[in-house]
Amino acid sequence: MKFIPLYDKIVAIKIENENKIGEIYIPTNENNIIKGKVVEIGIGNILENGKISPLIVKVDDNILFKDGYNVEKYKVGNIEYYFVKEKDIISIIK
To answer: Pfam families per the record (predicted)?
Structure first.
């Protein structure tokens, strides 16, 4: 299944529950921070003048985001897809 997200939406899948990135430990508590991989991105944000500003995140980027009320989920088989707006991403992991 292929998703085509609109505008500033990003489709990500959850990466293992590994709680360490390099030397940094990611809390696995009530904060619900998820490490994910971007699988699809929208075209960008629409500015007031009608032009489109491209997104910063790219396909295959690893990201951190908080599983909260702005995150939509859709499960296909064993894969859970997360639909997140770029502004709700905490960090890109390099």
So the answer is: Cpn10
